[in-house]
Amino acid sequence: MNAxxxxxxxxxxxxxxxxxxxxxxxxxxxxxxxxxxxxxxxAVGHTADAFRDAHRVWGLERAVHLPDETAVQSALLHGxxxxxxxxxYYAAVHFPATLAFLVWLYLRRPAxxxxxxxxxxxxxxxxxxxxxxFPLAPPRMVTGTGLVDTGRLYGPSVYGPPAGDHLSNQFAxxxxxxxxxxxxxxxxxxxxxxxxLRWLWLLHPLVTLLVIVGTANHYWLDAIAATALLGVAxxxxxxxxxxxxxxxxxxxERLAPREPALAGAAR
Length: 267
What we know:
single chain; 3-stranded antiparallel sheet
């Protein structure tokens, strides 16, 4: 991301969106991440149900002819370097990319920041309900799928043995917030920037989808469920609207005339 993606500075006297207090937003965002981690821990257990539901999900995917997850994993396993990169992407990109997205919006697009933060909070809150009602073991744990645990075999892995892993609930595979958050990052940056190449941000959720499936941490249906939750949140929580050169929301942000085509997408 850089200044070339920004609209020109507002004219003197033009209304602008007030940036929310930094300390309050820090606490809210930190709380969002904490709720994400601790909320899933409240739904630990239900091991038998989690494996029963896993076989149901696997069977449903085959019944509706979704692509086989083993095809994606087989492509990753052609080389140790590729599978190691996929495991690293799964382990290291999820939280930092989302946090960087929120920080950039807070500093450069306050109205879009408020919108994105509310959408992410709504999706995360809704996603915490499913582990209570539908515990789900990830495909890497399920026998008979032909999939292997790439994190354990090739590293790096973010999970330990389920019985001793006190930092995450490994039976909360659905929905995939890895994918849901990545898709929101792309949608948010597309909405908040004006480069002709801003659609390249969709590569982030696309790569995330291939990674979560190829590493056997999620099923296709986990990503579909996350997309559905995000769709509902976006339908209810509307982004700042651009009209007559302004961005409306909690205040309005005056936009300069459309800048020349950029050499690259926002970074």
